[in-house]
Amino acid sequence: MTTALEEDLKDRSAEAVQYLYDSYGRWIAFRRGKYVFDTAGKWVGWLPWEDGEVVDVEGEYLGTVFPGDRLYTVLAHRYRGYPGYPGYPGQPAFPGYPAFAGPSRLPPAAVDIEELKVLV
């Protein structure tokens, strides 16, 4: 049985952009297909299992996509093994700037991803 989030992730085409936000509502990354990029367009991770779990370019857990297009690190995530290497995605077209998403409460045992914090 798949969750609503898993169905949403599968339905997004390779060309569609999903903006990802921290708990403050700040844009921290975007997803195009299975690849995740920071706000400058640098490839930072990918979704190898199509279930919302994101690993970095070296295959280490980075975070999980939650409803509301939030990307958080779950402190007690389970190790799923090395996912392999998907191949370099190339340079994405800049997706433009999204609107502010508004604050959202962090799920239990989750934190914002420090590596993706926007420098202000």
List the topology elements.
Blueprint: H1 4-11, E1 17-21, E2 27-32, E3 35-38, E4 43-46, E5 53-56, E6 61-66, E7 70-74, E8 110-112
Antiparallel strand pairs: 1-2, 2-3, 3-4, 4-5, 5-6, 6-7, 7-8
How many strands in all?
Answer: 8
The number of helical elements comes to: 1
Q: Name the helix and strand elements from N-terminus to C-terminus, one letter apiece.
A: HEEEEEEEE
Classify the beta-strand content into a percent band: 25-35%
Distance between the termini: 42 Å
Envelope shape? globular
Largest sheet, in brief, is: 8 strands, antiparallel
Oligomer: single chain
Mean pLDDT: 88
Gyration radius, in Å: 13 Å
Enumerate the spans where pLDDT stays under 50 for 5 or more consecutive residues: none
Structural class assignment: mainly beta
Determine the fraction of residues in helical runs and give it as a percent range.
under 10%
In the sheet with the most strands, the strands line up as 1-2-3-4-5-6-7-8
Overview of the structural elements:
With 120 residues, the protein is mainly beta. It is 7% helix and 31% strand. It contains 1 helix and 8 strands, in the order αββββββββ. It has an 8-stranded antiparallel sheet, with no helix packed on it. The protein is globular.
Give the tags.
single chain; 120 residues; mainly beta; eight-stranded antiparallel sheet; 31% strand
Summarize, please.
This protein is mostly beta strands and 120 residues long. 7% of the residues lie in helices and 31% in strands.
